[in-house]
Structure to design on (130 residues):
């Protein structure tokens, strides 16, 4: 999104192509949530392994570095399983990685599931009802 005479403009497109058309040192801050490369629901936009995940992150980070004003900051969201590739790509583009805020997400079991009962069921064990 950019502002022209008090108006906001939202541009839809590949961020690398959009930033390529922007002036150097023209952005104060960047906040982004790029694809995590988990092939979320089979979506093509999240298939980063096939194109080299670290190289893909590097390609947008180079443009981000170019358009960001000196002293500007960038906040990038990532997920534990693939954040290392994103951080390396961003760092290789010229950014100094200062801190990381980690998002820890427990997944795999429905919130209402009693894991010990499910393990007993899988083992064919019946519990005594007290």
């Amino acid at each position: 999104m950019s502002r022209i005479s008090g108006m906001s403009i939202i541009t839809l497109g590949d961020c690398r192509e959009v930033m390529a058309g922007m002036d150097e040192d023209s952005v104060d801050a960047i906040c982004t949530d790029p694809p995590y490369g988990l092939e979320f629901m089979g979506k093509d936009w999240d298939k980063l392994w096939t194109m080299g995940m670290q190289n893909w992150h590097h390609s947008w980070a180079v443009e981000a570095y170019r358009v960001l004003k000196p002293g500007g900051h960038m906040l990038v969201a990532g997920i534990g399983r693939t954040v290392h590739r994103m951080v390396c790509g961003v760092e290789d583009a010229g950014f100094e990685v200062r801190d990381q805020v980690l998002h820890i997400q427990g997944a795999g079991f429905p919130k209402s599931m009693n894991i010990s009962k499910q393990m007993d069921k899988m083992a064919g064990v019946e519990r005594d009802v007290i």
Notes: The chain has a mean pLDDT of 85. The two ends are 61 Å apart (CA to CA). Strands lie at 2-4, 7-9, 27-32, 68-76.
